[in-house]
Write a structure and sequence with these properties.
Order of helices and strands: HEHHHEEHHH
CATH architecture of the domain at 14-122: Alpha-Beta Complex
Strand order of the largest sheet: 1-3-2
Largest sheet: 3 strands, antiparallel
Length: 177
């Protein structure tokens, strides 16, 4: 049974797991992205996102709290100096998990965990894409051009049927002569 199993223990003791997550968080902050297994990436995501949220408000108290989790002063200063400025307007979701492939030796599922605002390839592709027109389910009528509007207003008057018959008779008589 998995009653009250709130997080993945990653088959490690508590101290080993905390050290693993702290080192991975420091690497993620310094390199803006790391390659790891999906299970570790999910555990690290829930570990590092509250720290990034803390870094939005630069105070001594917040720096010390983050330092108690990471224990790498260069990573903490990088987090508060550079990353916090970029994610200041983002309400959450600072990291992204991109699944890559399976590892060759043990077939473990690998992924890339990265900071969302630091992937230049995706940011460049996002700016290049054109915005699509929003589609509605009701068939919206197309906008009419000026030429179409004028032609519909000035219709040619219909000729009476008797005149049409006379015109056709004249044409047949001309052909027979």
């Amino acid at each position: 049974m998995r009653h009250r199993k709130n997080f993945n223990h990653l088959s490690r003791t508590s101290s080993h797991r905390e050290a693993l997550l702290a080192n991975m968080a420091a690497s993620l902050i310094m390199h803006k992205g790391i390659i790891t297994t999906v299970a570790k990436a999910k555990a690290l995501k829930s570990y590092v996102e509250p720290l990034i949220s803390r870094s939005k408000e630069d105070s001594t108290h917040n720096r010390r709290l983050v330092f108690s989790y990471i224990s790498d002063k260069f990573a903490v200063s990088e987090l508060f100096r550079d990353i916090a400025v970029k994610v200041a307007q983002r309400p959450g979701g600072y990291t992204r998990i991109l699944r890559i492939a399976n590892r060759k030796g043990d077939n473990a599922e690998l992924c890339r965990l990265e900071l969302v605002d630091y992937n230049e390839n995706m940011l460049a592709a996002k700016t290049e894409t054109k915005q699509k027109a929003t589609r509605t389910r009701r068939g919206a009528s197309k906008k009419k051009t000026q030429g179409e509007v004028n032609t519909k207003k000035t219709k040619t008057p219909k000729t009476p049927k008797s005149e049409n018959i006379d015109n056709t008779e004249d044409k047949t008589s001309e052909v027979s002569e």
